[in-house]
Amino acid sequence: MANQSTPDQLFEIRNSFYIGNYQHCINEAQNLKHFLNSQVNDPSIQLERDIFMYRAYIAQNKYGVVINDITSSSAPELQHIKMLAVYLNGDTDKTKEVVNSFEKQIQNIDPEDKILPLVAGLVFCLEEDYDSALRLLHKSDNLECRALTIQIYLKMNRIDLAQKELNSLKEIDEDCTLTQMSQAWVNLQKSGDKLQDAYYTFQELTDKYATTPLLLNSQAAALFALGKFEEAQPVLQEALDKDPNSPDTLANMVVATQHIGKTHEVSKRYLTQLQHSYSNHPFVKDFHNREQEFVRLSKMYSPVASS
Asked: What are the coiled-coil residue ranges (predicted)?
């Protein structure tokens, strides 16, 4: 939704969402709602405010709030947000329904609808259908669509294409927080001074706006890439203090504690919490696949008992 014509009233809401300050995003959206209802009658501002507010609820895993609040009479853009909440809520049958519904809807996208490409693109990305996601995202000039495109290219290890997309993003709005974060994501995939630049970018955003688990985990990722696991551990502990149930923090804590020589019990505790609460997290899936592969190889090379 973000673009250069977005009213100033939404900056705090939009920026808070980008840096992962989700409760502040919700609080500001609710405060703005009272102001708009009493003094401003601009449906576009009201709609964008609601979109970011409900996306913040989704980021907090409060899917029920979104599903219950958004009704059949709500705007089409909010219906897309509701479908994202249904998808992430975890019901397998409903997840398939959401994917099928988006596959049909994208056949005839309203050019004015800036949310459908973003949300459907995100769902396709989570489904690891990167080709469909990219084809859809390239149809939109939304800054968030471009940022998601960069993330997908990085997942595909196509740093060259990610850099090209980043250059386009800079031409649109070089100073936007989303652009700065995208630059840091790309730098994380490089080496040398670029890794340090990524760390400084996340640190500057923290100093300028707020300390959030998202930015702290991003700093930790940069420290991991620099081989500074001892320095990353307290950063992650701060993130864990802010949100004890953050799946990314738990996953990164497993990595950090393993590298700095903590006891197996410490790492296992974080891993167990992650597996119990977020069974579909990529880290958990990858760990499970590696466990199965280890068992398979162990059986293949185990000595055959003599008769």
From this structure: none
For every residue of 210-231, which 3-state class applies, written as one string? CCCHHHHHHHHHHHHHCCCHHH
CB contact at 8 A, 57 and 81 = no
93-124 pLDDT per residue, tens: 899 999 999 999 999 888 888 899 999 999 99
**Residue pair 159/193 in contact by the 8 Å Cβ criterion:** no
292 to each of 40, 281, 287, how far by Cα in Å?
Answer: 58, 17, 9
**Residues 74-113: b if buried by 16+ CB within 10 A, e if exposed:** ebebbbbbbbbbbbbbeeeeebeebbebbeebbeeeeeeb
3-state secondary structure of 79: helix
Contact between 176 and 2 under an 8 Å Cβ cutoff? The reply is yes
Which residue do the tokens 């008769």 mark?
Answer: 307
Contact present, 52 and 9 (Cβ < 8 Å): no
pTM of the model: 0.88
Contact criterion met (CB below 8 Å) for 282 and 262: no
3-state secondary structure of 61: coil
